[in-house]
Amino acid sequence: MLDAVRAEDVFSARAVTTHRLSSMRPQSAPLQHRKAHDDMPVTGDLATLIEPLKALANPVRFQVLQWLRDPEEHFPVDPAVTDPRAVGVCVSHIQAKTGLAQSTVSAYMAVLERAGLVRSTRVGKWTHYRRDEERIALLVEEFRREVGEARTGDLLSP
Prior knowledge:
The chain is mainly alpha-helical. The chain is built from nine helices and three strands; from the N terminus they run H-H-H-H-H-E-H-H-E-E-H-H. A three-stranded antiparallel sheet has the order 1-3-2. Helix 3 crosses helix 8 and helix 6 crosses helix 7. It is elongated and about 50 Å long.
């Protein structure tokens, strides 16, 4: 009985199902509205803030940056091998703490490095990462200039 099903019927049934599913989806904004928003020009000053903010939008990358603030507290330290403040924390220690695959951690660290939030140093075959405190301080200051500091009244008003 199944052999008697025609290909046109199968494709027709798929088309009806696809049409029903797509009509159930919420309608998005018109393409030109989204495009106009996405194509807004970014000034040079804002461009330097956007990449670090994108990098920190991922909770794991944000957590790693927090851990690197006090590496002795969060990672195993062997002063005979490296100084975590001067050289950084080995990527294998970061990988072990996050519990993620090495490739994922390496990709996350590359994003943080491109954003200017960490610096890397090769020690033999291992890569060590440390925060770029000077760059982070500049970004915080630039964020204050561009966005402004919150006033107490601003935080309480709806």
